[in-house]
Amino acid sequence: MHGSELNDGQHSTPEEDPRPKLWPRVLGSLAIVGVMIGMMIGRLTTPVPVELQQVDVLANGLVVWFSAEPKLHGELVDGSLGLLFDAKGKPQNGQLMLNGKHVNWRVRDTDGGLLLTVVAARALQGDWAGAPQDGRWRLQVSLRE
């Protein structure tokens, strides 16, 4: 034998296997099934985002309604009130009267969530308190000069 050519079946090179190679198909199928199951588990465990439903104006403040309790960070900065909510919602704005003077409020979308700012021509002070009510979350913002 001087080469690997076929001479009546007497050669050192094995013949090709005519059966299909199933191992790559099995591994590919397992990978696809694993990804699909992981995506389904991820969808089930993802929390529903909190949503701003409405803003009501009171005589001395605002009532902000959410679908659930949002994470909240609030500050009084230079006489204005800023509340940052970890929630989704549409931008809104409005005006209210506090002791016969105008107070402007605005809800806008930021990178950190929804930002509620309350601004007046004079310095404001404010308190906020939230509680569940009727299956929703009610946040009352009380303002004073």
How would you characterize this protein structure?
The protein has one helix spanning 23-45; strands at 52-58, 61-66, 72-77, 80-85, 92-98, 101-110, 113-120, 125-133, 136-144. β5 (92-98) and β6 (101-110) form a beta hairpin. The strands form 2 sheets. Strands 3-4-7-6-5 form a 5-stranded antiparallel sheet, with no helix packed on it. The model has no long low-confidence stretch (mean pLDDT 85). The longest helix is centred in the first third of the chain and has 23 residues, at 23-45. The protein has a domain at 52-144. It contains 1 helix and 9 strands, in the order αβββββββββ. The protein starts with 22 loop residues before the first helix and ends with a strand. With 145 residues, it is α+β, with helices and mostly antiparallel strands. Residues 1-21 are annotated as: Disordered. This is Anti-sigma factor. It comes from Pseudomonas psychrophila.
